[in-house]
């Protein structure tokens, strides 16, 4: 996985938050896909292999906690070689609850660009890469 080849899914029902996250990451030239509800995100997770998924814990139709459970099952069924790095975007649910449901991390809304970059940096470091984010 090359740093600039990262494929990221942003799943959030609020378009302004999806746009804010995309703007924070714009200059990295990541491949970013969007989903505005849990069912759309599930379809994308079934169709594509993502490096990082940012999920609103309160998505419509299928909340982020249940979506994470489905995402983990998809990885097993499709015999994918890696676990997707999943980060919950939350205002109400604790980081511990996010981790318990299978997420790797949680960001409390609102968050800074620096905090978002830390979340993206960690899975890269785990794969032996040290990206320069700024």
Explain this structure to me?
The protein has 134 residues and is an alpha/beta fold. It has a single domain (3-125), classed as Response regulator (Rossmann fold, 3-Layer(aba) Sandwich), CATH 3.40.50. It contains five helices and five strands, in the order βαβαβαβαβα. Strand 1, helix 1 (15-25) and strand 2 (31-35) form a beta-alpha-beta unit. Helix 2 runs parallel beside helix 3. It is globular and about 35 Å long. The model has no long low-confidence stretch (mean pLDDT 89).
- Major beta sheet, strand line-up: 2-1-3-4-5
Helix content: 40-55%
CATH topology: Rossmann fold
Mean pLDDT: 89
- Evaluate the radius of gyration: 14 Å
The computed structural class is: alpha/beta
Question: How many structural domains are formed by the residues?
Answer: 1
Q: Element order, helices and strands?
A: EHEHEHEHEH
- Indicate the low-confidence ranges by residue numbers: none
Q: What is the level 1 CATH name? A: Alpha Beta
Q: Which outline best applies?
A: globular
Largest sheet geometry: 5 strands, parallel
The named CATH superfamily: Response regulator
Number of strands: 5
DSSP helix count?
5
CATH architecture: 3-Layer(aba) Sandwich
Which percent band covers the strand fraction? Answer: 15-25%
Termini Cα gap:
20 Å
Question: What is shown here, in short?
Answer:
By secondary structure, the protein is α/β, with parallel strands linked by helices.
Secondary structure topology:
Blueprint: E1 7-11, H1 15-25, E2 31-35, H2 38-47, E3 52-56, H3 64-77, E4 85-90, H4 95-100, E5 105-108, H5 113-126
Parallel strand pairs: 1-2, 1-3, 3-4, 4-5
Helix pairs in contact: 2-3
